Amino acid sequence: MTQPLPNLEQTVHDASNPKGAGRYRWRIVALLFFATTVNYIDRQVLSFVIADDVFKRQMLGLPAGSIFSQQNNEDYNIIVSMIDAAFKIAYALGFLLMGWLIDRIGTKKGYSLGILVWSIAGLLTGFVHTVMGVRAVRFVLGLGEAANFPAAIKTVAEWFPKKERSHASGLFNAGTNVGIIITALTVPFIIHHWGWRIAFIITGILGFILLIVWHYTYTRPEENKKLSARELSYINSDNEPVTNKKIPWRQLLGYRQTWVFITGKFLADPIWWFYLTWLPKYFVDNTGGDHEFSISTLGIPFLIIYSVSDVGSIFFGWLASRFMHRGWSENKARKTTMLICALCVLPIALAAQTHSMYLIIGLIALATAAHQGWSANMYAIAGNLFPKNVVASVTGIGGMAGAVGGVILAFITGYLINWFGYASMFIIASSAYIFALLIIHLILPKLKPVDTL
Q1: Would you tell me the crossing angle of helices 357-385 and 148-159 to the nearest 10 degrees?
Q2: Tens digit of each residue's pLDDT (9 = 90 or more) over 104-139
Q3: Domains along the chain with CATH numbers
Q4: How many beta carbons lie within 10 A of that of residue 416, not counting itself?
Q5: Distance CA 392, CA 99 (A)
């Protein structure tokens, strides 16, 4: 006798709501998803603008219609590296500052400040005329945008029990890919019809909309009148002590757990930054394959790459949670999932060895999906190994390490591409994650929470 198919909506609801705990907390993930999407739209605009010929000539001081020589292209690569480095330097400083600030004034106020700063900077980018002007506004943008992940990870730690945090982190982290996809589908169109300045102005306005939504929507679980007592009890089921005790950075740096997070971010984040900044230009520059792209057709490969990345973020975040629901230790579940992610990145080293654009897009999509899965688990590590009162600070320290790694790579990327081509960057990308996982295991053979804070 044929059995009726299960109700998919009910199955998902049951899986994410053990013992009928309720599901309001997933609305908070939706809010974080929206915030992360806007965050990435605002930061990603420049990556498409740098592929625009008008912007290139303005930054190089060349007249419209002039021939773009090989020397011009090499000079422009260095300019892009310096602009990219300015953002990442500020992002590194901002991570440390925002993580500290959010732990002290609260998630709602701290994140509101970050949104305000990055939205103003994004809007002002549409009015600058020089390389120094672009570098200045990108520096301010980096300071503000650094608030996103410390605030989001602290929110997840406040709203979810430990066994659900990697799943929740994977879901909100998927907003990064959606932000990139939206940018890829809209910004080239805006640039083509109205110019690169309008692209910054329109996307900058989105941040102010987010600020209003965040301010009038977010509250802590204990203050939320729509949250049931049963779900609040489930959220606090880890019996994690609630404290407002302030812990200095120097003390946090004394824990191996902090260095696990620092390592995972320092070695992996720069690779993600490379994708964000250079992939649009890579596709435009790569004229030797079976397809050629212009600023108006870049949306196609990015739609594919970052749709797959979304799946990776959600799947690998879910996978670790699934392993833990089946009784695996956090150490085994987390490291196994991260090993799978690291192995999925290895084939990107072949991207520069093929002329098939289909294969190149596939390899990059697999690598970016694995990175997002890696990130979801790294954020869950920060949320699970540290008490809630220091989660934003630890996330800020790790985020700063990732941004510092990004600064180092940003400074040399233009030179490496000029000397050795994009192949050098793909080789670096392929080995970073497996190397990071090895160091993480050496630092902390068994992942376990700190017990003296």
Answers
A1: 60
A2: 888 899 999 999 999 999 999 999 989 999 999 999
A3: 23-222+246-443 (1.20.1250.20)
A4: 17
A5: 5
